[in-house]
Amino acid sequence: MMLTDLSLAGALRGLERREFSSRELTQAHLEAIEQLNPRLNAFITVTGEQALEAAEAADRTRAGGEAAALTGAPLGIKDLFCTEGVRTTAASRILQNFVPPYESTVTAQLKRDGAVVLGKTNLDEFAMGSSNMNSAYGPVENPWQRRGEVARRVPGGAAGGPPAAVAARLPRGATGTDTGGSIRQPASFCGIVGIKPTYGRCSRWGVVAFASSLDQAGPLARTVEDCAILLGSMAGFDPKDSTSVDRPVPDYRAACGCSVKGLRIGVPVEYRSPGMSAEIEALWRQGVDWLREAGCEIVDVSLPHTKYGLATYYIVAPAECSSNLARYDGVRFGERVEGETLDALYERSRAAGFGPEVRRRILIGTYVLSSGYYDAFYLRAQKVRSLILRDFSEAFQRVDALLTPTAPSAAFAQGEKMDDPVTMYLNDIFTVPASMAGIPGLSVPGGLDEAGLPLGLQLLGRPFDEESLFALGSVLEKAAGFTHLPAVRAGAAS
Amino acid sequence: MSYEIAGETGTWELVIGLEVHAQVVSEAKLFSGARATYGGEPNSQVSLVDAAFPGMLPVINMRCVAQAVRTGLGLEAQVNLVSRFDRKNYFYADLPAGYQISQFAHPIVGAGKIEIELGDGSRREIGVTRLHLEQDAGKSLHDQNPTRSYIDLNRAGVALMEIVSEPDMRSPEEAGAYLRKLRTILRYLGTCDGNMEEGSLRADVNVSVRRAGEAFRTRCEIKNVNSIRYVMQAVEAEARRQVSIWEGGGTVDQETRLFDPQRGQTRPLRTKEDAHDYRYFPDPDLLPLVLEEDWVEALKADLPELPDAKRVRFVSEYGISHYDAGVLVADQATADFYEMVAGGRDGRLAANWVLGDFFAALNRTGRTIADSPVTAAALGGLLDLVADGTINGRIAKDVFEAMVDTGEGAAAVVEARGLRQVVDTGLIDAALEAVLATHADKLTEYRGGKEKLFGFFVGQVIKGMGGKGNPALVNDALRRRLAQ
Predict the structure, then answer these.
(1) What structural domains and CATH numbers belong to chain A?
(2) What predicted TM-score, i.e. pTM, was given to this entire model?
(3) pLDDT of B400-420, one tens digit each?
(4) Which ipTM score applies to this complex?
(5) Residues B285, A243: C-beta atoms closer than 8 Å
(6) Is A333 in contact with B58 (Cβ distance < 8 A)?
(7) Under an 8 A CB cutoff, do B281 and A319 touch?
(8) Which domains are assigned to chain B?
(9) Which residues of B touch A325 (CB under 8 A)?
């Protein structure tokens, strides 16, 4: 067994037992990154030197008999989290030289708990996309391939880097952010676990904003337990984020493996879309059976406003992004393209700095907020949003959690769905409603499709009831026995 | 009589509304911990939040919220227990985030009122539509370099209260009185220093004209007028401009204008077509601002006495005229000074001294109450010497001038210069005989029935005593002597 094969929990156990040092562990990961990143492009920036220094510090800490939750564990950080002294690009040209003089709260907490940061992982520009084809630093390749095919597939998005890296075993875990599904959909595409916690659970301070009312940080890792360990460090109240919620962080790890007997699980009928593939439907049914066998009671529920989720999302998120991204104007950040007037400077700098998908969303967002359209679009979307939330609140009076597929398909090929943004947006159809409602969602690999690509199951829970999701996720994980491996991974002959 | 502009075709009425931006007195900015004080090297009071670095988030400064609530209470306005912050989106180099956080749909303070008093003593109530909190922008400096603009973000993010009036004012004088009264209230509350030269109080002036009894016509907004005098001038100039357009058969276009004090004219800044679409929407980084009723009540209980109430109290407590009370309360420092002088003394005498000799001395020496050479205690001491008969009222004036010049106390001046008034009746009688001897002719006239001359004799006697004669004793002695 190689060091890169270990789960996060396994690696921590090995460090605890002095079976290997953090330096050795980190070195092994850096070598794997060196070997595979040129192909996968999962990392934008690799911070090898700092990682080794942090690993040595972790080893000293352990030698001193002290260890925190993550002491010595090598992680990848989505390049949307500001990291002090380390370039933070948001995968955009406009931030290509941006080195923050500050550390995001979430990464600061991971470092506080001893994490070793290997580098900054790739994503769609400003986290906008479902394929990771929109990065100014090139697309990310999914380590998984269809059986007998060599066509490169997308890892999902917006953050394809973290799940691709985790699936290929380059870090033990990674941070992501989820605005409309950017943790769960790529986790599903890459055959790993990812959780978007409740809005307000993790601080947004120091995370480059896409859509502030939706953005939420969360972990991606190979197992449910690993995600629980990571979330335990990432979560917590932050007075610097007014939308962060002041309530204690439970022991998520302890929730993994808890009995789920007697829990009521809702199956939302509206998620059974007419075009759903038989494989996805079969997997969903399988997931229901697994939970029933574990002692859960299965209940059909209705979330009638689900069908408006995507349309609503693509009004609210672009509206917020059009405002959030106004600060990238060539005056202080990014490459400035001079113009004769201030307006010309803005137009040229922003045209040069933003890619086509970001420009598209800024245009949509600007449009839906303009006077004369605000009521018809933004205001109505907010009303629908509260109806979506009400759907969930009513459902959660009857059930403890919901089970759905994570995405409507397995990973598609690079270049596919690129000509029609709406088809691309449909990838988020199952993940977006939970984002709109701010409730937690966990994606667990459930199996492979007939071509050998991973498919995920999504669990949705009550606000701040991540514990139930971890318990239920552990049950699914165990029942699925997902031990399949991607074609491209550390240690595999390539 | 109401104010009107006489045009070629008849008279026109003015309609004026003011939007006042008042910088909140607070240590820190509205959403960042950076210092909010005036001055400082350019860009020395800027946090990462103010400079809109990626991932930075606003956190409301409750001190600024308290100041806005206190101001609302001072304007007898509705305090909204739930309000909300919106983003006002526009691009400008001194607006780092590309949006200003403001309150558009749900302001923290609703309708209130301000009573103004005009030169003829008449009073009017001007409605306040609302008060909301917002961030100030930075400052663009265009005159430092021929080809470049420099940006100073010290002011970026400082809390402002925008106080919007109803279109209730009808003359330049009313606009001036409103602004003056608002500034007095803000200063009493300590929520804005009211310093128009430093820009901590600025007014946008909305002006339209109409025939009496008509509905409102199109208005123009004159931006950022920075003195009360200019506000009054701008109103008049803009109203005259509009009258001549209407009378020339034209139409006034809704536009934003600037006032040029040198030329005494307004000129266009931007037309309605160039108006920004600010794309207001609720700021998703901030939760609705929810206030506890108890908290608001506690602020209310702690409010200082405001000028209107103080004026009423001064009249009843010190027996001074409504007019004098109005002058005394117009400035809190003056009111406080007066109370220290008047406390336990003759209130009217104190008012006469403060409004008369004391103010004259300040004017003459170019000082203010804060650095006055005569403190309230010292002036009180002078009044005490008059009250206990140590000096007479006439000598008191000389003593006061000496106090202004030397900064010494009244008693010290009186002792050093031997100004204690003479109560020795022997000395008074001697001075009296000397006067009667000198003015024998006047004495004859007096005896002949010209009794007015009594005052003349009193004056001459006191003068003959170097001014130090006790007027009452001189009166008595003289009355006795002339009755003989």
Answers:
(1) 3-263+442-480 (3.90.1300.10)
(2) 0.91
(3) 999 999 989 998 888 888 778
(4) 0.95
(5) yes
(6) no
(7) yes
(8) 5-298 (no CATH), 305-417 (no CATH), 425-483 (1.10.10)
(9) 98
